[in-house]
Design goal:
heterodimer; A: about 525 residues; alpha/beta; D-Maltodextrin-Binding Protein, domain 2; 3 domains; five-stranded mixed sheet; 10 strands; B: about 250 residues; four-stranded antiparallel sheet; 10 helices
Chain lengths: ~525, ~250
């Protein structure tokens, strides 16, 4: 686990914690406020038009049942952009149900006798709603807002997947790096925020009850009541203050103007991507005059790609196989050179995006065995396993067992059939291997655990697995503006072979170093900086 | 003056009538009591006068104007209404409740306040003590006093009272009845008062209209009702208290 003492860890991350808290509060605050502005009038409308109610509540209820990640992914596809906007829309949609439902419940709960009295003394329809029904329904409506806001704090942690920031960023990064401290750095403040918001709105609700108003002037109860009514406004001020000052931290680090004075480096949400992101970022910082903004931990290939197309990031590291299969939806090209040439040409024509020179390693699937066993049996290539296939126990990830470029295809290409195949969760797979419970696993060629567990990837002698060479993909506009940039990135070409990448991955995954530190040490060792 | 002319009300599209061809007149400054047992149509009749319920047939005039031609909100502001279940607003103080009606018609908050305090004193509540309290902190009797004050707040010509003292205990009830008698003499409003209690009817009414199953049995000054009951129903009704008294005496 992490080597640095807790205190250093906290002090180092305090500014970012402030920034992420601000982002988190802003996401929750803006979405709750929007949901209020929409939800209360909709609630009133549905209260007045009961025939509409069933359909509308049904629709809002269905929105609520959509899993949060699916909703974010859907909005991302719909809006074609990452960042705060899709996150706020998703959070607003989730906040609608409790607010609309409580508005209707509150309005319905007002006694008909009181409403008849209001009518009987000559109040207009609007006055009855404004002066009698709404005030009497207010505690229930506020309770709905409270539910929505607390729910929002939780769901907002997921917004980090689509680059909206917030405390979820720490959680994502922690999950990607198996770093419990980072996870807690996001999770604990998020939980505290939820409690704080719950308490604040709860206090407001408490003060709203009519019986609190009878408290005598100057009494403690009266003072508490006054205080409770001010709290939501203090909360709003606090949100704005934290967000603005947090944004200040971000602005100090990067000047505005994408591709102007600043380049935005993206990365997906797993260790190797964070390392490659850092690598590119640090080289740019050291070899050019440009400032770098890091937008790491984006939740997947499509998110990075979309962000790149929209200019929300300027570059990230992509794998040839992924570009070919996932983005261009083309069949496998086994020859690495051909594959690179192909994606380079189509990306240039279709997207105006350039593929620079690959870093050197090939992060493809690797059929992997224990080093001692390999020595014993003389295994070097995958086809060497054929002889012993009836004695071998395989442990594969569920994905590998199922994918056509996984075990089914492998089995066909090499005529291999292992004695047994177990579906295992990735980290369990390595443990099972270490304990001798399985003999063959599917690793990624650059996984740091290959070295850590003294494993040996076998050579893919029939070139079955598609090549996954990583290379910087970058908006061509950026390159045109900055000659230095291209030069800096090209210098990374061929720098990392499989073993070097494995070692870096292991330093972060296994030894708990931050990606930034590991990359820094690596670049120094290569006398890059 | 309030005039009902062949007023009928059906809640079920004509299968049955809550009020049937009711005609009567309430003279300016008099108190007419609508007397009858529950379900006889007296509350329906009262609510039709300020259009909380609209008649199925017939015509209702207020000061010579057909009320169906008037804006219902303006109509209701001309008529004070005291509700059966009191109907004070729980989220407003006593003073705010009483000052509400004048405020609706555009009076300033300050004038409303002064007016509210005066009215509270008039219905026998010390303004200083009660103005800032909330309805639920008052006894039933006190609440109904506030209800009366609210009905009087905008100084309406007409006052409709729907069994206002029905839920009170005997002591409170009597004291409120006495208050109302003196208010009535002082303010000279045209009042329609609904009750099922014959003693209350005799005490407060100038004239009494007796309703039974939606129809008018008899209307007239109380002396006439007592001395010349027009139908067997009325005869039975007015002899009931005497009979009950005799029964009770017979027990000893």
């Amino acid at each position: 686990m992490p080597a640095e003492p807790l205190q250093t860890f906290l002090v180092e991350r305090l500014p970012e914690l402030w920034l992420r808290t601000g982002e988190h509060l802003m996401l929750t605050g803006v979405s709750s406020a929007t949901a209020m502005l929409i939800g209360i009038p909709v609630g009133i409308l549905l209260f007045r038009r009961p025939w509409l109610r069933k359909a509308a509540m049904g629709a809002i209820g269905i929105i609520q049942t959509i899993p949060s990640l699916a909703m974010l992914a859907f909005l991302l596809a719909l809006l074609h952009r990452i960042g705060a906007l899709p996150a706020i829309i998703a959070l607003t949609l989730y906040a609608l149900l409790p607010i609309v439902r409580n508005t209707i419940t509150g309005l319905e709960g007002v006694s008909p006798q009181i409403m008849e009295a209001a009518k009987g003394i000559g109040m207009t329809k609007g006055q009855r709603l404004r002066m009698v029904r709404m005030p009497l329904a207010a505690p229930v409506v506020v309770a709905g807002i409270r539910t929505a806001a607390v729910l929002g704090v939780g769901i907002a942690t997921l917004s980090a997947f689509i680059g909206a920031g917030g405390l979820g960023q720490f959680i994502n990064r922690g999950l990607a790096l198996s770093n419990t401290r980072l996870i807690l750095l996001g999770a604990i403040p998020a939980a505290l925020l939820a409690l704080l918001i719950d308490f604040t709105i709860g206090a407001f609700e408490w003060g709203l009850a009519p019986e609190r108003r009878r408290a005598k002037k100057g009494s403690l109860l009266r003072m508490l009541r006054s205080a409770s009514q001010v709290m939501p406004f203090l909360l709003i001020l606090a949100i704005i203050a934290v967000w603005v000052s947090g944004a200040g931290i971000r602005n100090r680090e990067s000047l505005p103007g994408v591709c102007g004075g600043t380049v935005v480096v993206g990365a997906k949400n797993f260790t190797e991507q964070l390392i490659l992101g850092e690598l590119m970022a640090q080289v740019i910082e050291n070899r050019t005059q440009l400032k770098v903004e890091r937008r790491f931990n984006l939740g997947g290939t499509m998110i990075c790609h979309t962000a790149l197309l929209n200019g929300e990031i300027d570059l990230y590291a992509e794998y040839t196989g992924t570009g070919l299969n996932a983005i261009l939806e083309e069949p496998v090209i086994s020859d690495p050179e051909t594959a690179l040439r192909y994606v380079r040409r189509v990306y240039h024509e279709r997207f105006g995006i350039g593929w620079l020179n690959p870093f050197g390693f090939n992060n493809t699937y690797a059929i992997t065995v224990r080093q001692d066993q390999a020595r014993e049996h003389g295994w070097h290539k995958i086809s060497d396993l054929k002889e012993d296939e009836n004695d071998l126990r395989a442990g594969f990830t569920a994905e590998f067992s199922e994918r056509t470029d996984g075990y089914p295809g492998l089995s066909r290409a090499y005529g291999l059939r292992f004695m047994e195949v177990n579906d295992l969760e990735p980290s369990m797979m390595y443990k099972a291997m270490a304990n001798g419970e399985v003999d063959v696993i599917c690793a990624f060629a650059t996984d740091g655990r290959i070295e850590a567990y003294q494993l040996k990837p076998l050579q893919d002698d029939r070139e079955f697995f598609p090549p996954y060479y990583a290379a910087p993909v970058i908006r061509e506009k950026c390159l045109e503006k900055n000659v230095d940039l291209e030069k800096a990135l090209l210098s990374l070409g061929g720098l990392l072979d499989d073993e070097a990448m494995q070692r870096l991955n292991f330093q972060v995954d296994g030894k708990g170093l931050s990606a930034a530190k590991a990359v820094n040490a690596f670049l120094k060792s290569k006398e890059f900086i | 003056m309030i005039r009902l002319e062949k007023v009928s009300k059906s809640f079920d599209g004509g299968r049955s009538y809550a009020v049937m061809e009711l005609s009567l007149r309430v003279n300016t400054g008099e108190t007419l009591v609508l007397l009858g047992s529950s379900g006889c149509g007296k509350t329906t009749t009262l609510k039709m006068i300020n259009r909380l319920i609209e008649p199925t047939e017939g015509r209702i005039e207020l000061g010579g104007e057909n009320i169906m031609k008037l804006d219902p909100v303006k109509l209701r502001r001309r008529i004070g209404y005291v509700f059966q279940g009191i109907g004070l607003f729980p989220h407003m103080t006593v003073e705010e409740n009483v000052g509400l009606v004048p405020r609706l018609s555009g009076e300033s908050v300050r004038d409303g306040k002064a007016n509210a305090q005066e009215l509270l004193e008039m219905v026998g509540l010390t303004a200083k003590t009660f103005a800032d309290r909330f309805p639920e902190e008052l006894s039933g009797g006190q609440q109904q006093r506030v209800g009366v004050a609210r009905a009087l707040a905008d100084n309406p010509e007409y006052l409709l009272m729907d069994e206002p003292f029905g839920a009170l205990d005997a002591v409170n009830r009597e004291s409120l009845q006495q208050e109302l008698l003196s208010l009535k003499r002082k303010l000279k409003k045209t009042i329609v008062f609904v009750t099922h209690d014959i003693f209350e009817a005799l005490l407060l009414g100038d004239r009494i209209a007796i309703l039974h199953e939606g129809r008018l049995e008899q209307i007239g000054p109380k002396r006439e009702i007592l001395t010349a009951p027009a139908t067997p129903f009325v005869k039975n009704l007015i002899s009931k208290p005497a009979r009950q008294l005799a029964d009770i005496q017979g027990m000893f």
